[in-house]
Description:
The protein has a 5-stranded parallel beta sheet, with helices on both faces. A 5-stranded parallel beta sheet has the order 10-9-8-11-12, with helices on both faces. Strands 6-7 form a two-stranded parallel ribbon. Residues about 65-90 have low confidence and may be disordered. The chain has helices spanning about 10-25, 40-45, 60-65, 90-115, 130-140, 170-200, 205-215, 260-265, 285-295, 330, 345-355, 365-375, 395-405, 410-425, 425-440; strands spanning about 5, 30-35, 50-55, 120-125, 145, 220-225, 240, 270-275, 300-305, 320-325, 340, 360. It has 2 domains: about 5-245 and about 425-440, Rossmann fold, CATH 3.40.50; about 260-425, Glycogen Phosphorylase B (Rossmann fold). α9 (about 285-295) links the parallel β8 (about 270-275) and β9 (about 300-305). By secondary structure, the chain is α/β, with parallel strands linked by helices. The chain is globular, with a radius of gyration of 21 Å.
Amino acid sequence: MPKILITAAGSYGDIAPYTGLGARLRTAGHEVALATHDSYASLVRAAGLEFRRLPADPRTRHAATADTRNPGDTRNPGGTRDTATPDRPSGPGRNRDLMRQAAAFIKELGGGLTAAAREDTGLLLLSATTAPLGHHLAEARGIPFLDLPLVPGAPTGDFAPVVSGGRSLGRWGNRAAGRLSLRIIDRLYADAARELRTRLGLPPATPRTVRRRAEAAGRPVLHGFSEVLVPRPTDWRPGLDVVGNWWPWHAPDAQLPPAVEDFLAAGPPPVFIGFGSMAGGEGERLSTLVAAALRRARLRGILQSGWAGLSAGHTSADADLLTIGEVPHALLFPRMAAVVHHCGAGTAAAGVRAGVPTVPVPVTADQPFWAARLASLGVATAPIPFQELSGDRAVARLSHALTQATAAPARRDHARTAAHRLAAEDGAAKVLKAVTHLTETEHPAN
Length: 446
């Protein structure tokens, strides 16, 4: 049986779903390696997968430069971590800088991807960030591949590109914007693709040419999100499928830390607040703001530190606040009264899965898209854009949203209904079926 190599790059939310998927494939008898950044080596190995290193670790870059977002984020290859923050520079010059940062990230990634795909690789499973590079590698070495993005990327009239803010431009406008979005991605990958093809001994071909070849061949693309949140677009070609979420791996016997259990037992269900890999350098301000909003709403809270550095230590040592690090959302979220987060694809889905209301605070990239989806499903309050969590009314606005999320029975009922629908899906099983078909077709002797 050929070895499967999963490749994924970006922040935690871009990597973790593939650990659960890889573990499922391993349980079915496949040998699986996951190529990603050093920061996630322990996560990969804990899931029972072989770790292979990819360069351009965003956590290292974050530590060195706290005011820029990971430029290799699959949801926004050229975006800033906090473009919404009012005192940060923006405009054409800033955007050009971000595009250069993203292109440099991608170029570095290309070399690492080639090294990760050793001679034992019989099948490539590619994330949205690694796919435009992985296609060249597959072509050069004759390796079958499958694209497994976590967000919708193909143009459609049903909605605008996920990085455009979630506002529909009409069917024609949505499709036009979707095509433009693909051209921008092609441009970001152009230099890296040219170098990679030269290194692999391939004839020149632009990212657009390679992408169109895959489209013309009807290559399957399995999207790792749920139709509960995003129904499959009506105008997508055959082969573009929405299969359901792949959930981050955690040990079957995993439990919440004793300090968390003690906090939960000490009072009514709290509210979770976390911004994942967003809002770097904003920890003290956000912690003070969140603590004040929770007090006004008379709610307890659990602050997940994340890259922002949220901490109850930044506040007045409130006994109704607890600071935590990385904890499986699957264990924590069902115990919450509500969840407040940036609406990355994985965190948004985790809130729906838990059956609890959400207060969306989108920062950038695809996050406004997912925030709008949650609100339209009835499981979330109206989104509060991150840039609006500043100024004199920020505490009042967040407090009002917290009250809406926790005191409205209809919203919780909608959340439970959505969770029930999500529980009926098995996205990993559909990938396993596709992998089995590919391996039997491409490696019949095995």
